[in-house]
Amino acid sequence: MLAGTGSDVGKSILATALCRIFRQDGYNPAPFKAQNMALNSAATADGYEIGRAQMVQAEAAGVVATTDMNPLLLKPNSEHTTQVVLNGKPIGNRNAYDYFRKEGREELRQEVNRAFDRLAQQYNPIVMEGAGSICELNLMDTDLVNMPMARHAQAKVILVCDIDRGGVFAQAYGSIMLQKPEDQKRIVGIIVNKFRGDIRLFEDGRKMLEDICHVPVLGVVPYLKDVKIEAEDSMNINLSTTSGSEGVVYIAVVLLRHISNFTDFDRLQSDPRVNLFYARTPEELRGADIVILPGTKSTLADLYELQESGMKEAILKAHRAGKRIIGICGGYQMMGESVEDPDGVEGSIARLPGLGLFPFVTTMSGEKTTCQTEFTFEGLPCKGYEIHQGVTKVALPAPEGENYYENENLCEATNRFDNLVSSPYVMGTNTLGTYIHGILDNAPVIDWLLAPYTSRQVVTEDYDTFKQRQYDLLADHVRKYVDMDKIYDLLK
């Protein structure tokens, strides 16, 4: 188990690296995180939902992702409530107080333990990941994902520290000393992560850390800049602006409060023809050639904020000026005539007018659509996945002159009109809407998107090939700085 001194210390990326290394060395590894809290999720091949990080780790391990790799996923709706996804399916919304009470925790504990047991029958080794800090004293009795999970799995625990934040000695020492004596014994090593500068300058620090913690330092890993691995959550969003680039297409992603699946833009951001940035105010949209409305966990709440902040009018102004507007998932729902929630699935807002760029109405429902799909774009094969709540239907006849494609439906259209909005994507005048996450991972879509703004052509590497190469580069980086021989000795 890779456990952390806090959130965003690098547990997920190191777990991904170990999954790849074990696979390269001839083993059959699999990732496991009992409980994940993130809005960045993925659809498994059999139509269930797990955290995006475990999908990435499964890809690195060369195995098919299943819900047993992340049996419990929490998707925050607001600062106080979260949707609980158990074994790939939502079981309802909980407020934080109720979720972290002792009552009912044992049932969840049994579920995550059973998921690990099933996984351990198929794979070896299991690369486990903790969540946040391992020493939140007020939550230890209800913890499902850190040391109690390590006890169940009889796991060797490696503590991951983030030296870039400072205070690495206090991080490591405090995290170990605040454990129960039996849990202290499970911590068999430390990895110091995100080091900047000349690594030789930390040689004395390494020895000091071992002396005070009585645990070996298994590696000091430099900050990783040139390897592209999909991030676990939106803490990793790069809020760069439009300044400093010439001859590129400026693409603004509207930074919604509840943005989800922000990795939809990773490939686009790495395209040399693109300067992609996140816009929070109407002023920041002015320099954009293309505006993207991303996915969101709370469509109505974010649509309300767009209206109140002036962003809604700024998007419509950009459209009137001939800019392309792209909507993905919740962003696609916002592009219709209205979004309605008569049953309060998302919250207290019953209805809001949308941007009116498509003649559709979306009604929120308790059922969640989760599936992977293959489709064609400009006659070329593409793929992606859906994770959304809500049913979108045609409200009005399509305006004259609009070019709405009627491609094969994704998830069972019920009639000819619904087939329009159940298609992989719908296009209008300078608009494209889709429920498909990952649509911008496909080269034909990117080339279409950029065509009006640049004649420059680039040879775009197949995205799966690109990702596999990144996993190998990550493994090389970690092998260089982490003592893998010692880790294998510990596993024996």
Descriptive overview:
This protein is an alpha/beta fold. The chain has 2 domains: 2-229 and 468-491, 3-Layer(aba) Sandwich (Rossmann fold); 248-453, Class I glutamine amidotransferase (GATase) domain (Rossmann fold, 3-Layer(aba) Sandwich). The longest helix has 19 residues, at 463-481. The protein is globular, with a radius of gyration of 23 Å. The model is unreliable at 401-419 (pLDDT under 50).
Write a brief structural summary.
The protein is an alpha/beta fold and 492 residues long. It has 17 helices and 24 strands.
The gross shape turns out to be globular
What percentage of the residues does DSSP assign to strands (E)? 25-35%
Return the CATH architecture of the largest domain: 3-Layer(aba) Sandwich
| Number of helices, counting only DSSP H or I runs of 4 residues or more | 17
Q: What characterizes the major β-sheet? A: 6 strands, mixed
CATH class of the largest domain: Alpha Beta
- Helicity range: 25-40%
Q: Which regions have little confidence, pLDDT < 50, spanning 5+ residues?
A: 401-419
- How many domains in all? 2
Q: How would you name the CATH homologous superfamily of the largest domain?
A: P-loop containing nucleotide triphosphate hydrolases
Arithmetic mean pLDDT: 89
Ends apart, CA distance between termini: 14 Å
Strand arrangement, largest sheet?
A: 15-13-16-18-24-23
